[in-house]
Write a structure and sequence with these properties.
Layout (H helix, E strand, L loop, with lengths): L9 E5 L8 H11 L6 E5 L1 H10 L3 H10 L2 H5 L2 E2 L7 E2 L1 H11 L14 E7 L5 E4 L4 H8 L9 E3 L2 E5 L8 H6 L4 E5 L16 H23 L4 E3 L14 H23 L2
Parallel strand pairs: 1-2, 1-9, 2-5, 9-10
Antiparallel strand pairs: 3-4, 5-6, 5-8, 7-8
Helix pairs in contact: 1-9, 2-6
Length: 269
């Protein structure tokens, strides 16, 4: 379906990728600067956070925070209780989400444009799209990386990180009626890093996550290709290299600018 003015409905799919996800901020900035406003936005994990922050009108606040945040600031979100284990501090995370993504009383259905965030049903292993309910709860569920975040209970389901089933939610944008989907893939070439020394506990976890993210993203893109695929060159940014937000945002902007000609061709603008 197209708008009455015949302009196709534009969908923006923001993929998972932890600290690489700050590239999404640059992507959105470049699109808006060129007059391209997505009609629907879907996100997985960090993509869900950025998508909802944008649609709630808080993207600039979020960008300002990540640009000045240090590794110490990030580590404060975790409470270390057991040797070699870390668990997110939910109270601290909630304060962050309410300040920089959406206030506690903001609902998904109240956002500026249709939005869905991707989660995984922990018991059934299936994809769950959240389009209603508390924004902060939905984002927290979509980001619930097993081993670091506890599962989130929503609508009688235990939900975890959406990246387990759909790291790049092109299909979700189609479900919301998008005619042309711009997909932002943060998992391109993430397996090129070589380790000389034996990886430690967290390195093993993160490399394992990279492996399945790479494989699942490839499979999903084969089944549900984006009309325009933006792939920021951020494979050298580790999942918790949050101090490199400026690099990620800059690359997101640059990569999007390179795709503008193709985007305008696709949307007829």
């Amino acid at each position: 379906m197209k708008h009455s003015d015949q302009r196709p409905k534009i969908g923006l799919a923001l993929g998972s990728g932890a600290s690489r996800g700050w590239s999404h901020v640059g992507v959105i900035k470049a699109l808006l600067a060129d007059g391209i406003k997505p009609d629907v936005v879907c996100g997985t994990s960090v993509g869900a956070m950025v998508a909802c922050s944008y649609l709630a009108g808080n993207l600039e606040k979020l960008e300002n925070w990540v640009l000045r945040a240090s590794l110490t600031d990030v580590l404060q979100f975790f409470s270390f209780r057991l040797a070699n284990s870390a668990f997110v501090d939910i109270e601290r995370l909630n304060r962050f989400l309410h300040n920089f993504v959406a206030a506690a009383d903001v609902l998904m259905e109240d956002l500026a444009r249709p939005c869905a965030v991707v989660c995984t049903d922990l018991e059934l292993g299936c994809e769950v799209l959240l389009r209603e309910g508390c924004v902060a709860d939905a984002v927290r569920a979509s980001m619930a990386m097993p081993g670091l975040f506890p599962p989130e209970r929503i609508d009688q389901r235990w939900l975890v990180d959406g990246g387990l089933v759909n790291p790049l939610p092109v299909s979700a944008c189609r479900d919301l009626g998008a005619d042309v989907v711009i997909g932002v893939n943060l998992n391109s070439n993430i397996l090129n890093t070589h380790h000389v020394e034996k990886p430690g506990y967290f390195a093993t976890i993160l490399n394992t996550i990279n492996i399945f993210q790479d494989q699942i993203t490839r499979t999903r893109l084969e089944a549900y290709p984006a009309d325009i695929l933006i792939e920021p060159r951020v494979n050298d940014i580790g999942m918790f290299d949050f101090q490199r937000a400026a690099d990620a945002i800059q690359e997101g902007e640059a990569c999007t600018r390179r795709a503008l000609t193709d985007i305008h061709r696709r949307i007829g603008a």
